[in-house]
Amino acid sequence: MTKEDNLKRYQPLDDRPSMTVYAGTNGAGKSELTKILKHRNPDIVVIDADEIAKSYSHLPKNRADFAAGREAVKLVRQCIEEGKSFSIETTLGGKNVLNQMQLAKKSGFSINLYYVGLDSVDLHIDRVAQRVAKGGHHIPEEDIRRRYVTSLENLPQAIRLADRSFLFDNSNVYQIQAEVYRGQIRYQAPPSEITSWAKNVLKDWHNIQSEIHKDLQAEQSTLRNLLGEAKRKLYELESPLRDMQQLERLEARQADLNKRYDMMQPKGIFEKLRQPNRTDLQKLSDERNAVQKQIDTTRQRIPGPKEMAGIRTMITSTSSFIEILDRALKECTKQVMAVGNQISQRDLKQTMSRVQSHEISSSIEMDR
Questions:
Q1: Three-state secondary-structure class, residue 167
Q2: I need a surface site. Which of 19, 117, 125, 353 has the fewest CB within 10 A?
Q3: How far is CA 230 from CA 8, 11, 266, 299, 328, in A?
Q4: Pick from 195, 160, 192, 189: nearest CA to 176
Q5: What Rg do the C-alpha atoms of the chain give, in angstroms?
């Protein structure tokens, strides 16, 4: 990973290139959501394997799909390498997109996940059939059923990798089920409005959130270590500057000693014969010699002008990196605390609920 990738990785989320993932089993309505949200970032590179497949219409469908998939993977890798914001559509039925999300995250991208689900797998099958009737492409029913299961199984890991996650149900119209920001639930639909598939995902939220909390704590530790290393490096880089400051102080001291030495020199013939300041002059002379030795030693440690210019550039770069790391550490620490507080509050509610249930059970037993 290059230094530029490191810098991107620790910039505020809105200052980084982004990877936007539109996910959901076939027929969920990913493409429509992509069109609805595209205005937010019209310059983003849209990678759509279905659209790419149209350019291979001269090939049999299975070969066209394979070629389009391979080209989509190539485009994703290219966008990550070039630091370009992009979006992809996926059923999330396999691990490939999870690997791409992980690679993008390591390369300094912010990850946005929009997951669209329907109330049942049969509704997915019906939606695909309706699409085929209008001239759309066919997906075998067994593939839809398989992807419906694996897509929801992979969703928790996708939420863990994403910085922002939005879960939509599209059984009737697009209805947000939950919004997650780096482990914090920012919004959750009322219980009466949460569909079964979203309820199952959120039911396992305790494990997902705990894993995200661990990820944030690991990132916090990494940032602390990087910040410490960067500060040590800066201290070493600034050594010549400290030597230059020391040299200025020594030269000022030398000028003062020379002035005092000159002032104490005998002025007339009688002073020259008597030498009234001989002892003080000797002390000043010894001190001047000692200071001169320090000046010579310090000058030897100071690099030449060309090397010094390079060091100053490195100091500026390292100082900027320290500012970025410090800002990132503060933000990460805030997130660790926020997620930790949510976990603690949820655990407390569960404990209180168990205590109340136990008290009710005990009361019933006593009444008997």
A1: strand
A2: 353
A3: 16, 16, 56, 27, 14
A4: 189
A5: 34
Q: How confident is the model at residue 2 (pLDDT cuts 50, 70, 90)?
A: very low
Count Cα atoms within 13 angstroms, Cβ side, for 17: 26
Return the ∠ at Cα 358 (arms to 354 and 360), rounded to 5°: 115
User: Distance between CA 284 and CA 282 in Å, rounded?
Assistant: 5
Task: Name the residue ranges covered by the structural domains of the chain.
Answer: 11-194, 219-336
- Confirm if 201 and 306 have CB atoms less than 8 A apart: no
CA dihedral 111, 117, 121, 126 (to 10 degrees): -120
* Residue 93 CB neighbour total at 10 angstroms: 21
d(CA 360, CA 210): 30
* Ordered DSSP codes for 282-343: HHHHHHHHHHHHHHHHHHHHSPPHHHHHHHHHHHHHHHHHHHHHHHHHHHHHHHHHHHHHHH
Burial class (CB in 10 A: 0-12, 13-18, 19+), 127: buried
DSSP assignment of 187-221 equals: EE--GGG--HHHHHHHHTHHHHHHHHHHHHHHHHH
pLDDT tens per residue across span 259-276? 999 988 888 887 777 777
Distance of alpha carbon 352 from alpha carbon 360, whole angstroms: 12
What are the phi and psi torsion angles at 128 (to 5°)? -65, -40
Q: Residue 53, Cβ neighbours under 10 Å: how many? A: 21
Q: Model confidence over 230-257: pLDDT tens digits? A: 999 999 999 999 999 999 999 999 999 9
* Overall size of the chain counted in residues: 368
Terminal Cα-to-Cα distance of the chain (whole angstroms): 69
Q: Which fold is adopted by the domain 11-194? A: Rossmann fold (3.40.50)
